[in-house]
Specification:
GO terms for molecular function: catalytic activity; magnesium ion binding. By secondary structure, this protein is α/β, with parallel strands linked by helices. Helices cover 46% and strands 14% of the residues. The chain has two domains: 239 residues, Alpha-Beta Barrel (TIM Barrel), CATH 3.20.20; 51 residues, no CATH class. The strands form two sheets. An eight-stranded parallel beta barrel has the order 1-2-3-4-5-6-7-8, surrounded by four helices. Strands 9-10 form a two-stranded antiparallel sheet. It binds coenzyme A and magnesium ion.
Length: 319
């Protein structure tokens, strides 16, 4: 899968759909994606008014972020079904995707997609509404591979660490942190890896969940580094102060980006020569087709994040 054309989704800002003030503020922020939340950040009495507010704010448009998503309520509840119905009926084409929480089986996904198709057909819409799926329970994790391949509308898998910790019986009180007194490095490594693998096997983005301790920037950096290093595309943030930290960790460093561009150029240069070997030395290290692929991956992440190579390809080849 080539990633060159993917949009960057390094920071994904959660904005409570009941807060007009935060929605206005979010319009001006530089998160790669924002999502207006109708689920856990909205109290039960405010569910209907938040839905109306979100629909009216979506119709006004004017958001800085290139992606604006909406998280709906659980799809086994009437309120969640109404969320999707109203969004498609009253704000179609004003948002980029719908985030579905607490996904546990592929059948749920298929059912949601069928409902979307029926709704779109009934309204004469050609759009194929995209969906993002949150994996946040033991059952969801067990079924993640089948969930990831259940519907072609799916664009990303998102890890939900708070609900997941509760579902597993982990002793965690700050969302996104290791369990209290956890003696190891990372209690979520297996979960992150499984979600990432299911995502990549189906050409999807993989997004890490939030980190709730706003005063703990080193902690946010550490957690971001863990998922960014594995290959995740981005991480949810809950406050404007977390956006830049996360953006910077999910962007390859200038040094690594430049080196990737150089490896690709040297590889192409050498390939132009019919007699060249498949493997050769570059700055003392063996590079081959696998190295070129790794470099291309890093390079494309950098390009999507707005980095620019300092030379054009030919000049790298000569350098
Ligand atoms: N989106 C947009 N604006 C936000 C924001 C967010 N997620 N979080 C804070 N802000 C704004 C505040 O409104 C405030 O604006 P102002 O300077 O114009 O007054 C400014 O950023 C500073 O906020 P601050 O006073 O530090 O925090 P707060 O007490 O207003 O809010 C939270 C703290 C945690 C309640 C808030 O950040 C929040 O609700 N985050 C999202 C929670 C969520 O969606 N959870 C579910 C998904 S994980
Ligand atoms: Mg959740």
């Amino acid at each position: 899968m080539t990633r060159i054309n993917l949009l960057s989704k390094r920071s994904v800002l959660a904005v409570p759909g009941s807060s007009e003030k935060m929605i206005q503020k979010a319009r001006l922020l530089n998160a790669d994606e924002i999502f207006l939340d109708l689920e856990d950040s909205v109290s039960l009495p405010e569910k209907d008014s938040a839905r109306s507010l979100v629909i009216s704010e979506l119709n006004k448009g004017d958001f800085n972020s290139s992606s604006v998503a909406v998280r709906v309520n659980e799809q086994n509840q009437l309120i969640g079904i109404q969320d999707i119905k109203d969004l498609i009926t009253k704000a179609s084409s004003k948002f980029t995707s719908i985030i579905i929480p607490k996904v546990e089986t592929p059948e749920q996904v298929t059912e949601i997609c069928q409902r979307l198709t029926e709704l779109e057909l009934s309204l004469g819409l050609n759009d194929q509404t995209k969906i993002q799926l949150q994996i946040e329970s033991a059952r969801g994790l067990l079924n993640v591979a089948d969930i990831a391949s259940a519907c072609s509308r799916t664009i990303s898998l998102i890890f939900g660490p708070g609900d997941f910790a509760a579902s597993m019986g982990m002793q965690v009180l700050n969302i996104g942190e290791n369990p209290i007194n956890y003696p190891g490095e990372d209690a979520y490594h297996h979960v992150l890896y499984s979600i990432l693998t299911a995502a990549r096997a189906n050409g999807l983005l993989a997004i890490d969940g939030p980190f709730s301790d706003l005063g703990n920037e080193p902690g946010l950096k550490h957690r971001s580094q863990l998922s960014a290093s594995l290959g995740y595309d981005g991480k949810w943030v809950i406050h404007p102060s977390q956006i830049e930290v996360v953006n910077s960790i999910f962007t390859p460093s200038e040094e690594v980006f430049e080196k990737s561009a150089k490896i690709m150029a040297h590889f192409n240069h050498s390939n132009a020569n019919e007699k060249s070997a498949g493997a050769f030395l570059f700055e003392g290290k063996m590079i081959d087709e696998a190295t070129r692929k790794m470099a291309e991956m890093i390079y494309s992440k950098g390009i999507a994040a707005g980095l620019k190579p300092s030379m054009d390809g030919d000049d790298y080849g000569k350098a």
